[in-house]
Structures are given as structure tokens and as C-alpha cells.
Specification:
Layout (H helix, E strand, L loop, with lengths): L8 H11 L7 E4 L9 H17 L2 E6 L9 H14 L5 E4 L4 H13 L3 E4 L3 H7 L17 H13 L8 E4 L14 E5 L13 E3 L1 H11 L4 E5 L6 H11 L5 E5 L11 H9 L14 H7 L3 H11 L10 H15 L1 E3 L1 E2 L2 E6 L8 E6 L10 E6 L2 E5 L19 E4 L4 E9 L5 E8 L17 E2 L1 E3 L4 E8 L24 E9 L11 E4 L3 E5 L9 E6 L4 H11 L1
Parallel strand pairs: 1-2, 2-3, 8-9, 10-23, 12-18, 16-19, 21-25
Antiparallel strand pairs: 4-5, 5-6, 6-7, 11-22, 12-15, 13-14, 15-20, 16-17, 17-18, 21-22, 23-24, 24-25
Helix pairs in contact: 2-11, 7-8, 11-12
This protein binds one RNA strand of 75 nucleotides through helix 5, strand 6, helix 7, helix 12 and strand 19.
Length: 558
Amino acid sequence: MSEEKSLNFIEEIVEADLAGGRYKTIHTRFPPEPNGYLHIGHAKSICLNFGLANKYGGKTNLRFDDTNPVTEDTEYVDSIKADIKWLGFKWSNELYASDYFNKLYELAIDLIKKSLAYVDDSTSEEIADQKGTPTEPGKPNQYRNRTIEENLDLFAKMKAGAFKDGAKVLRAKIDLANPNMHLRDPIMYRIKQAHHHRTGDAWCIYPMYDFAHGQSDSIENITHSVCTLEFVPHRPLYDWYIEQLNIFPSHQYEFARLNLTYTIMSKRKLLQLVNEKLVDGWNDPRMPTIAGLRRRGYTPESIRMFCDKIGVQKRENLIDLSLLEFCIREDLNKNAVRRMVVLDPIKLVITNYPEGHTEEMEGENNPEAEDGGGSRIIPFTKELWIEREDFMEEPPKKFFRLGVGLMVRLKSAYIVKCTGFNKDEKGKVTEVLAEYFPESRSGHDTSGIVVKGTIHWVSVQHALNAEVRLYDRLFKVENPAVEEGDFKDYINPESLHVIENALIEPDLRKATFSERYQFIRKGYFVLDEDSSEEKIVFNRTVTLKDAWAKETKKGIGK
RNA sequence: UGUUGAAUAGUGUAACGGUAAGCAUACCAGUCUUUGACACUGGUGGUCCAGGUUCGAAUCCCGGUUCAACAACCA
């Protein structure tokens, strides 16, 4: 019945490898460097790596690529683990590149003994100079001819701490004229007198990415080492080390990283936003981090759905934020509890309703659920808060809300007809007057009146206060990464709008962190971690689609 | 001026020499509606360019164009 879903190119490779007997089972890994929080781009990689193993019955390791002690920290290790779990994936082994420091050191010695590595005393500038350019070959220096014995001795001294940072490096002896810059005697080890978050002060030499990653893959018997496109030029080096070392042949495959409109995906830039306090930490709800999306109210299901929809390919891409928004709406429409909240209130007085009387209205929790998701009680009284934008003194045609003479249904309650309004001395409307039709009560409507519009409301007497944070896109341009100048100049100054005193229906007092809410006609919301007994805080995850807003925008355009 | 990779509706992604080039989203129009939501219906819109091979090309070959990555003691 179900349509055959086509495979992505990596799945095709895996199926061919399995079918051809190259491997009996596959083994992938997710290898973050613990120097920042995971973002939605990592989610793509996580879904791919874990998804591959899940689909083909293999395993996925979580391996921290912690070979640079100066940028890494256990705070990041912890957040990364929490985020992967939250996304719904389980790793087979929790491993660290630093687990392999001894092994890697031995492999380096092996290369020295094979005359394939040497200690170089040049400064980083000298090395850069001698490397040439992509169009000009590099030149060897005097250190390239050191004897095996001398190299062995020097490398041992490097490890023992005999030299200062930068004084010497260990380099692979490959080909200074290779058109691929990565093969021009790449650095394998550098000296860093730095404290490592796991190995402490045991080491003062640390392997470079290229001398650690492939070997770590190999040690773990990773069959398919999947990474992003910028590592394509590293692949010959990845293969070279494995071949010269004669170790398990892991293979590297590359896919295009995720780019999303109106945001940035560079860890370096995200860190900058955090450090310069342009956002409220790594988990600011405007951040594209997993922690930020979680706080914003995104669900793991919605992010997985998104990753599934964007596919996996080798071409550069820039995905519409609207696709991510579609995914969360899709999920939340089915699962969010409906509640009424007035963000920008104006009072509605029902002049023919008895003073001091309260009626208990029943409102279904979720019309998308089979049974309506159950229901809750909503108190109805003579004075209600409604949304200021739901009343107009001079309503345009097709305005299905309130204006003198117009009728609407108050959601889950009565139909009312607007009879007038009052203004203050400045001309601002202070209250809207209406009459209700007693026989139009929701569920028992015998009035025969048909209205086009339904609006939400909250009883003045029963409403509670809450802070509501409305989030919008972090940047005002589609692709801040390619704009001229500083990316921070393109931050959207209106990315956060705080409503201090929104009026929420009383049932929301029971709001929980795990529940998701749809504030009827306003959007999807989630309780924020800043909430306390005294103060309720909601974050807007995403708005509802709003055809009327488009309509009015078009009107303005004319 | 080098190497490597990539070009299919606005965006993303299928089609593996034989489909009227499919799907999703976005957009437009309409139906429905006690959420101007959801749901449903219809629509606009595409193979980077030029040659060649072939009965037949998005797909193979050949030029060209455009974009991206690569010259960190970062990963």
C-alpha cells in the first residue's frame, strides 16, 4: 500500500555494501566536539547516523572528538548527551577520542619508524609559507630529512614536556607538491600545555583532527563514517593514514550540511551571540540549538519529521524556515491542548447579561482528538476580555468580528451582537458593548442565528495574569551568513516581544512543562522554565497560519 | 590560473536510458468550519547553457557557465 520511499545516497551505499557482503552489519558514529551546544544541523546528522543504524540493524557510537583541550568543556558534553536523548536516540557506546591518546601516540611512532612522519621545528608562519598555495607547490625544509632515531627522540621529548607550545610539531611525510593542500605534510601533533577536561594534565601533545578521527573510527570498527561536505578534501588523508597504519578500513562519506533561512548554523557565531549576551544563553528560544528549540516548545517528533523531509544530499541547500514551522504545527495541531488567552485586551460588556452571574461553559480540549481530548470548564460572566484587534470602529468588508451591528460567536459560549462602544477623552476605545442571545448557548443553540466569526475571550472576574513571550525570527535577512559585514548587524530587533500581562483562562493555572498548548486563534505555546508559583510564563512556539493577516497586508499593499 | 564537489518549480527532494518530470512545503483560488486554524478541492510554477550518442536523454559523452569547499599548531 504505502509508497516506496526512495533511499538517500548514503542508504544506497549501505544497502550495496550489505548486499555485496562487504559488511555483515553496519556501525556508525556521531562525533561532536564538546565545544558548544548542538543545533538543528547536528540533528540532521544525528537522525542520519542513528537512523542508518536503526534501519539496518547496526550500532551507533557517541564519540566526543575532544582533541583540542582549550575549547572543550564537560558542560558541553553533558548538554550534548541530554540533547541526543531528548531527540529520542540511544547510543551503543559513549566514547571519547581522548580514550585513544595512548593508542594514537603508538600509531604516530609507527609512522615515524616507517619514515612517514617527522618532527618540524618551524613556526606556524614558516610552515604556512612552505606549504605553497593551491596553485603553487610547497617546498620541503631541513627538518624533513631528520633520521628516524632523531624523530623518535624528539617526539618522545615533545610528549615529556621538554618544549614550549608551538616549538615543534609532528608532521606526516607525504607530498609537499600535492594539489590537495591537506596532503602537503599535514600536522599530526602539536604541543599544548593545557588542561584537558578528561585527561587532565597527562598530556601536553594533542593529535590534530585528521590524525584522530579516522583512527578513532577504525578503532571502533566504524563501517560508514558520515560527515559534512567540508571534509571532502580530508578524505584522501583519512584514507592515507588508515592505509599506512594498516588498520581497520573505515570509509568516509559526506553530505551537505543543513542551512535554514533567517538563522545561522555556525557554532562560532552562536557562541558569539551567547558571549555578547545578544541572546539569553544557548537555550534562548530564538536559537537554532536543540536546547533553544526545546525551550521554544518544539517537540522531538517535529524535529525528526523535519529531518526526514529535508532529505540527505551533496548539494548546498538553504531550507525555508516555514518547513520547520510546518512540522511543528503538524505535530502540535494533533497534540496541543486548546485554551483561551487574550494577549491585548479590551473589555466586552454584555449589557443584557445578569450582573454577578457566572455560568460554567464546557470547552473541548482538542477537537483533533477522537473524543475531543476531554474538556474543561470555562467561567462566563457579564464582563469579558476580548482581543483588541477583534473589534473595529469602522470594520472593512469581510471582517468577521465585532463592530457595531456585527455578530460573532464567543467560542464555547454565546453569540453576541455589538451594540456600541465607549471611548476615553483621547479617542481610544475603552470598552465594547454587546447583547447576547440566551438561546444561542454553545451545544444548546436553538437560536438559528448563523455567524461567520468566532472569537476567544476570558472572564474579567476569573482571568489570571501571565507573561507571554512572543518570538520571531532571529535575523531579518534570509541568509545572514552571506551578507556583507558583521552578521550581528542583521539581527532582528523585534525577535522578542514580551507581553507582561496577558489574560489567561483559569484552567491554565494547572499548566505543566510537558504539556503543549494552543491558545485559540493565537498560536502554540509552552510553559517556560522561568515560571514559578507567583508568575506564569509562556513562550510562543509558532503562530497559527493567519489568512486574515495576509488579507489585510494585501489591502495595505494596494 | 589549481584540486575537489555540486547544478531538477520560490524552497527542499524523487525519477538509476522509456512517466504528460512525481512528492512535500510555500504561493494563489475555492469548499468546509463554534479557531480566518485544521481538513478538503483545484491552480501557478522546473530539468544551468550549447553540441553529440540514441528510435528515445533530467539521466550517457563533450565543451562551457555558475555555485561551494580547500592554503587554522580548529573540528
